[in-house]
């Protein structure tokens, strides 16, 4: 499917630094060494209750990854999915007496608008689960034929024992895995499974639910993890640079995805780094569709909030921390945006050379956006108090904030 329009990324003087980023699988920072074309897969939305601030914060983190890469003069190959058929989507459509296709299309359209307004760079390949089905079926057949998957009452399960690296992405103990599996779409208590953690690859058709031709698998629909694996392998191949999502995807989603791909190809790793963003909360609890404690990007936009201020509110928090959305967070961002706009609207100002270096250094250091904002704050304060005589400086600052932080001043 189509993604959304790209906003231009202004060229900056000099060159950025290579990104060091926290990798969940090693629980430490790694220096990424992408080739001339950096490859990134970011898990997309399940299209209902989009786009809330938690979604926006996670996509903001991976937008920064790409902006750092672009600043090192690399190209970026970015792939994202849309989980446009899955249990939670079907449940929501049923609850609301709505057609699931209509719900998915409407919410995906809203997500595109929000991403455009927030100046998030679009993926080159934006792929729905439904359109990926013809590529998913042969992968499940291959896993089954290789003995890495088995049938249970018509459904097909992946055997986690088929991958000797299973567990290396999230590094969790068996009991925690079991608890999270039950919480996050798995069915550890279903009788007949070889291992309670084994995830579904292909779900046989259920009455009243959509289903597709699955070749030798019979009619049905794909499991969640194999969806992202099929799309990533198709468009990026093994060993791509970053697999991204919120921290709630580390297990089971990214763990299982890595094992599917490694069992399929015999190669390791699926991704060079598994990068996870913290969870945004509202009123003390993780913002989530199931709880309904949501603040939407589109609601704020409708109320007249400048999307650049929303983006600054996200950037004020380190991507790995869990944080709370409040009115004050937004208010602070609105005020900061005003100060920055005033500072770059003058014909001259203090030199921007050191500032550009500080922003680059901050972002290359595990995407320390809050440090980058503080550096711009300092420059803006200097501009307000003493000013400066560098005629190019306000333009450089404006372009740097746009290119590296995605904020148009
Ligand atoms: N479709 C799957 C991924 S293949 C999915 O998880 N969809 S989602 O709509 O539930 O979430 C989309 C992205 O937003 C995921 O990376 C998820 O980890 C992230 N996310 C969801 N809630 C929050 C939150 N409260 N804070 C930060 N990120 C969140
Ligand atoms: Zn995914």
Structural notes for this entry:
- The chain has 409 residues and is of the alpha/beta class.
- The protein contains 13 helices and 14 strands.
- The strands form 4 sheets. A 5-stranded parallel β-sheet has the order 5-4-3-10-11, sandwiched between helices.
- The longest helix is centred in the first third of the chain and has 19 residues.
- The two termini are 31 Å apart.
- The mean pLDDT is 97.
- Zinc ion binds next to loops.
Features:
binds 5'-O-(N-(L-cysteinyl)-sulfamoyl)adenosine; binds zinc ion; 5-stranded parallel sheet; single chain; alpha/beta; 409 residues; 13 helices
What's the shape?
globular
Helix content: 40-55%
Cofactors, ions, other ligands = 5'-O-(N-(L-cysteinyl)-sulfamoyl)adenosine, zinc ion
Instruction: Report Rg.
Output: 22 Å
Could you give the distance between the termini? 31 Å
Mean of residue pLDDT values: 97
Give the strand order of the largest sheet, numbering strands 1, 2, ... along the chain.
5-4-3-10-11
Broad structural category: alpha/beta
Our estimate of the beta-strand percent is: 15-25%
Let me know the largest β-sheet: 5 strands, parallel
User: Helix tally?
Assistant: 13
Query: What's the SSE pattern?
Result: EEEHEHHEHEEHEEHEHEEEHHEHHHH
| Number of E-type strands | 14
Low-pLDDT residue intervals, each spanning 5 or more residues: none
